[in-house]
Design goal:
The protein has 3 helices and 18 strands. The protein is an alpha+beta fold and about 290 residues long. It has 2 domains: about 60 residues, no CATH class; about 220 residues, Ribbon (Umud Fragment, subunit A), CATH 2.10.109.10.
């Protein structure tokens, strides 16, 4: 599948400008030399505009392409599904080499470097909206049996022949009925803590009486080559419980750092868009 995101168009721009620069070096400039190179009043060589633009922008585009495609990609949190750890308006850096070096636009693994672990916060293309990017926490790895019983999750890992795998019990611990300041206050929410694979983080529920998550039970087995992901805002997240599993080929990277927070206007201001009204660096740090 081709993902028509910014990375795809950046790849296209790199290829086009690079090809123009290469052809100019091998052919077109020699033709200009044969006819006699012309210079402007500042002593710069006169050349067709598309060649001039390509030669000027190719180095910049190439550097941005390499950094963004293979090291770190900026990403804006678009919703409150990962409250309370990540807010709508947080800007983060996604580690692009955590889950394999991938071909931009096609997302095919070129060099395997690792795979998601339980507890990771990952960015990926969901199966029902493959041209968008979602961010959720990885809960189940390939082969895991997941059993959810009113908020308590039992993870039974897949065992190789002859091995004994101990179930992992994920039980939320109540912390407070007061949620962090920037979490929407329109409804009653309770704050809980969890620990999965050594990762300590907090999650939100609507409360025992109102929470769908705390009053339902289900079970599933994660297929090979796929992952089960959930938002930390358990009653305010559309995730693998609703649209299915995350394919290994749809992974983008691991959410690594928060580097900026923008607070937006409550109502659209220009062309139906909300505008930033506040900037903060107070939330800078790694993502748990």
């Amino acid at each position: 599948m081709i993902y028509y995101d910014f990375g795809f168009y950046l790849l296209l721009a790199t290829v086009v400008t690079g090809a123009v620069v290469l052809i100019d070096k091998l052919k077109w400039r020699k033709e200009r030399e044969a006819k006699g190179i012309e210079y402007d009043e500042k002593g710069n060589e006169k050349m067709p505009m598309f060649i001039d633009i390509s030669r000027s922008f190719f180095p910049i585009i190439l550097v941005v392409f390499l950094l963004r495609s293979f090291l770190y990609e900026p990403y804006r949190i678009p919703s409150g599904s990962m409250n309370p750890g990540l807010y709508d308006g947080d800007f983060i850096l996604v580690n692009k080499f955590s889950y394999g070096i991938r071909m931009p636009g096609f997302n095919t693994v070129i060099i395997p470097t690792g795979s998601p672990k339980r507890g990771d916060v990952a960015v990926f293309h969901p199966p029902h909206e493959p041209q968008t990017a979602y961010i959720k926490r990885i809960i189940g790895e390939p082969g895991d049996r997941l059993e959810w019983n009113r908020g308590v999750l039992t993870i039974t890992p897949k065992c190789e022949s002859g091995e004994t795998c101990q179930p992992i019990m994920l039980r939320p611990q109540f912390v407070s009925d007061e949620v962090p300041e920037l979490v929407p206050q329109g409804e009653v929410l309770d704050l809980y803590s969890e620990n999965l694979s050594g990762n300590d983080y907090q999650v939100l529920y609507k409360g025992i009486q109102r929470s769908q998550s705390l009053n339902h039970s289900w079970s599933t087995v994660v297929p090979e080559g796929q992952y089960f992901a959930m938002g930390d805002n358990r009653d305010g997240s559309a995730d693998s419980r609703f649209w299915g599993f995350v394919d290994e080929d749809a992974l983008i990277g691991r959410a690594a750092y928060k580097w900026l927070f923008l607070e937006f206007t409550e109502e659209p201001v220009i062309f139906g868009k909300k505008l930033p009204k506040g900037v903060s660096f107070g939330r800078v740090g790694s993502i748990e």
